Amino acid sequence: MNETLTHWWAKIQAIFNAPLLELGDSRLTLNGIVKLLVVMLLVVLTERYLRRIVRRRILARTHMEPDLQFAISRFVGYCFIAVGFFFAFKLVHLDLSSLAVIVGGLGVGIGFGLQNIVSNFISGLIILAERPITIGHRVEVGDVAGQVTKINLRSTIVVTNDNITIIVPNSNFITSPVTNWSYGDPKVRLRLPVGVAYGSDVEKLRQVLLDVAAKNPAVLQNPAPMVRFLEFGDSALNFELAVWTVDLAHRPTHFRSELYFAIERKLRENQIEVPFPQRDLHLRSGKITIESKGAGRFDANLQPD
Hints:
Blueprint: H1 2-17, E1 19-23, E2 26-29, H2 30-58, H3 66-91, H4 100-113, H5 115-130, E3 138-141, E4 144-151, E5 155-159, E6 165-169, H6 170-175, E7 178-180, E8 188-196, H7 202-215, E9 219-220, E10 226-232, E11 237-245, H8 252-269, E12 286-292, E13 296-302
Helix pairs in contact: 2-3, 7-8
């Protein structure tokens, strides 16, 4: 019985130690592959635990922002994985220099295939280092406008006012113009165009617009609201109400709507007309012939004014 077990064990060892692939002075065996996979798995599991320790025990005691803490912990984790995989190859006596040509060829192919991912990854590091946007900022990039809720190394999560979650690649924040309503000073100025009919009392209009701004709690009184006379338009006298606020970063559409509702109500109460587009039609002398099926022909003579 013992001889049979010994015989089968020797066969199993021979199978596991048989060279599957020779790379220079190294021989890759099934036993080496199993060891390599086990060590890599241990490295990945240890990296997750180490990343959690670095973030919760070390970085949490600093004054860094959460997204920066997350980036540093992920970077430490990636470095640990790279070092761990290097020692895993050394453990199975795999000569890495013999893989240089293969890795180089694979690197070129993978580089072309994953250039967008690499670009987003590098852009994520730049965002976390320079911090042009952070969690809680309201941004506009391309057709996307909303609040930043999470910054990953590849993408950024933006939630719109309609509670729609949009995943934006980080390269968009580096290569495209970005409007950050929350960057630096949160005060922004909103300009509301208002047109009234010719003959309106412009001083009364100025007072009406300033009253609307003063009664809105979201409008800052310092800097003070301002009414500007822009131009004599084709159909209206064009004015502009300029107000300062900090709410535009969080609810821009709602803020504009509330002001326009109040302006329309006040203009109606003070009988200040908002005109329709007007055009003057001048007819020259001549003849117009109008033909209609079943109605014959009608000639109209036009006389000058």
